[in-house]
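Hey team,

Sharing the Polynucleotide adenylyltransferase run so nobody has to redo it. Sequence (382 residues) first:
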Amino acid sequence: MKRDPAVDGLEVYCVGGAVRDARLGWPVYDHDWVVVGATPQEMRRRGFKPVGRDFPVFLHPESHEEYALARTERKAGHGYTGFVVHASPEVTLEEDLVRRDLTINAMAETPEGELIDPYGGLSDLEARVLRHVSSAFVEDPLRVLRAARFLARYAGLGFTIAEETRGLMRQLVTSGEIGHLVAERVWTETEKALSEPWPEVYFQTLADCGALAVLTPELADDSEALDDALGRLHCLPEEIGGEVRARWRWARLTEHLDEAARCSLAERLRLPKAHAALARQAALTRDLCREAQAGPLTGERILAWLDAIDAWRRSERVAPLLGLVSLEAPALADDLALAWRLSAQILPKTLIGEGFQGRELGEELTRRRREAIEAALAPPVP
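Structure output:
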């Protein structure tokens, strides 16, 4: 093993996700380390950069991986921040690991690859069980969301949440502790869950333990509508992937809500503007599709939809929304694509060149775009 002067003589262990995912055969992108028996002064002397705000965490001077001093926590208030953290050279590895949420996250490994597993994480990993490490699970309501998110990641591998752990999750809800989570942490976990392979499992798990009704009542109020919404999470336009997938999944999850409910939810979670905007566009597109099922759309109605999604200034929005329409109504998507293509050719500068200005310019632009859309909708002449 290559010598690392920065950690020579330190008692260090790889912990958490890297240990877990390596044994699952999942890709490991970075490593987190725990240092036992060291002080902040010694870490800084070795060139580590302190970055922890609430407890001693340092970045390696070359790899920039995180090295945290072994620590314990004591509950002293509500929510996930209501803890007193104690880090000192006397804290053992086992004491550090016992404060973690799930047994599969409470394994450690020496730099030489020796597994240290005091709480049965490996056996739970092999049994495909998510289980709490200790009764201290109920001290941190964020662990309800984390358990749900890990299930959203591993459900396809056959993982389940241990029934006794589900009981503690319900306890965190009935005690009211879940209500002390701040919006930013709820959204952070939710956005991560939306990027997991089985995001619907996250919301189903929160609904089962009662947390969804507390954190996002707009989604929980109608269980049948929620089931339909969860079924849409994997129904995305073909071109949607990568970092924007979570945003589109959120839009699909909430597109059935009325505007008041979507705005309430966005405000409660302090939703990023891009997510709120896309959710609104998806809802407008859903409304258009529902109207098309009831009867032919008029040029005026399609023009109103293009205006509402700000298509003239943000033309990049149109294609993926048409992709959304094509999932349910391919013929309608083709008609809308032609209507958009023809109407987008009517440019303000052309009308200005013809002498239109002010209010007359706007009225003529609207009229010609509507006519172009109606021409696209007109049946072909035999």
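The two ends are 79 Å apart (CA to CA).

Ping me if you want the raw files.
A.
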